[in-house]
Specification:
single chain; 472 residues; alpha+beta; Cytochrome p450; 5-stranded mixed sheet
Length: 472
């Protein structure tokens, strides 16, 4: 049944649809959950929940190692609102246990609920059970091998256009240029927008969505903040972005060349659920499409940009690595280029953890945990433990070559199990094309050092990953 807000969206008035999403999104993964008894949980700090939440979101790269050192392989953090428990694990066998667990009990969508106001209730990251299964089935064809091969040429074209603008000998922030590049890939390859006037309207709204401060996300726990300062501006920006996106979706539905288009949006418009052949609503409606497109935007924009920025800096620190990477470009050795990107994601995790919320009591890592507990592996700790990676502080792409590559229970930037990131293949393909373009043209050298900082839900180079390039 179509609601008043949905009818308004179909008529071109999407503001109420956006505001309703902010009003009804819950950052706690469900309302009215019973408190979880503290004595049933692994140990953890006794600080106020707000302080623990800030430490987890803002100072993750210091907080995770401190927790592991103080409390061992399993520890509990309490989060606002209400002191909700998050239990993090660091052993690969527990990661495997969580990834292989019953998805009807281990709900990933509820664990990602803080993203709801931006991504929307239909986001693949926020859905669970049959809704998640249906959405993943509809989205998957756009990210399989044949589709990825079709995107490669356009990604290479966008990368070449970006690299054409670089000025030799002058230091610049690789993160800024990689963000611009990956945004262009999202807009052109995923959204399928090529008109420069429309791109000019979309870019600033998308950038403001990506660049929100962690405090904005934390503020969703307190709905009244949405009427104030930066929270209000975030809502207003979402109103504008949604207006542009719904307009693009409506127009694309009626495009005469829809069947010939290869961008992700056009593929999604043409997709339908094969298990419901007689259902006229077996495809994705406008709201579902909007939510999935924003999910792909946030999951595939700055994450890939940050990984690429770190890769350029790490290769630029070592003449030997630079020579090896340039030789890979010359010889068409994509496996090495992909290994460089994977090692960048290992040494510099973009996302700190993978989470699931228990819908029923479950035993995890030997702990009998009650329903309502959120659990998950710490990506940060998994990637920096000596037991998982020899010399974990050293950038060594060859870890990902040969027969002894890291298992998907220790290298987990894309999560795992039935919830592994649907865009993992796209991200790696995009990264390889960008690295090929950069190192095929330039000698790259790092300028100074860098450390991670948190921006929205991702970690990026604090100083922007400064590099200098010269023609080969």
């Amino acid at each position: 049944m179509t609601t008043h807000a949905e009818r308004a969206a179909l008529d071109g008035d999407t503001r109420e649809l956006t505001l309703r999403r902010f009003r009804h999104s819950s950052v706690v993964g469900g309302r009215g959950a019973a408190p979880v008894p503290v004595d049933q949980l692994p140990p953890g700090p006794r600080w106020p929940a707000l302080l623990q939440t800030v430490a987890l979101m803002r100072f993750r790269h210091q907080f995770h190692p401190w927790l592991h050192k103080k409390y061992g392989d399993a520890y509990t953090v309490h989060l606002v609102p209400g002191g909700r428990p998050l239990v993090l694990f660091t052993r690969p066998e527990v990661t495997k246990e969580i990834f292989a667990a019953d998805p009807e009990v281990f709900h990933a969508g509820k664990g990602n609920a803080i993203l709801g106001p931006i991504m929307g209730e239909h986001s693949l990251l926020l859905q669970d059970s049959t809704e998640h299964h249906r959405a993943r089935k509809l989205l998957m064809p756009a990210f399989l091998g044949h589709a990825l091969r079709g995107y490669r040429g356009l990604v290479a074209e966008v990368a070449a256009a970006e690299v054409d603008t670089w000025r030799e000998g002058e230091p610049f922030r690789a993160l800024e240029r990689m963000n611009a590049l990956t945004l262009e890939v999202i807009l052109r390859v995923v959204f399928g927008v090529t008109d420069e006037e429309r791109l000019a309207r979309l870019r600033p709204a998308v950038n403001r969505t990506v660049e929100i401060h962690p405090a904005i996300l934390l503020g969703w726990a307190y709905p009244r903040l949405q009427r104030l300062g930066p929270w209000r501006r975030t809502v207003d920006n979402q109103v504008e972005l949604d207006r542009l996106m719904y307009a693009e979706i409506r127009e694309r539905r009626t495009a005469a060349d829809l069947a010939e288009r290869s961008d992700v949006l056009s593929r999604l418009l043409a997709s339908s659920d094969p298990d419901r052949p007689d259902d006229p609503d077996r495809g994705l409606d406008d709201t579902e499409l909007r939510d999935q497109l924003v999910t792909l935007l946030l999951a595939g924009h700055e994450t890939t940009a940050s990984a690429l920025s770190w890769a350029l800096v790490e290769v630029g620190r070592s003449p030997d690595l630079l020579a090896r990477t340039q030789r890979a470009v010359d010889e068409g050795d994509d496996a090495w280029l992909e290994a460089v990107l994977k090692e960048s994601m290992r040494l510099h995790p973009i996302i700190p953890m993978v989470v699931r919320t228990l819908m029923a009591p479950a035993t995890v890592g030997g702990w009998d945990l009650p329903a309502g507990t959120t659990v998950g592996p710490s990506i940060i700790m998994s990637h920096q433990q000596e037991s998982n990676f020899a010399d974990p502080g050293v950038f060594r792409p060859e870890r990902f070559l040969g027969d002894d590559v890291p298992a998907l229970t220790v290298w987990i930037p894309f999560g795992g199990g039935v919830r592994r990131c649907i865009g993992a293949g796209f991200s790696l393909m995009e990264g390889v094309e960008v690295l090929r373009e950069v190192f095929g043209r330039y000698d790259v050298s790092a300028v100074g050092t860098d450390v991670p900082k948190v921006r929205n839900i991702t970690s990026v180079p604090r100083r922007g990953a400064r590099i200098r390039v010269r023609a080969r």
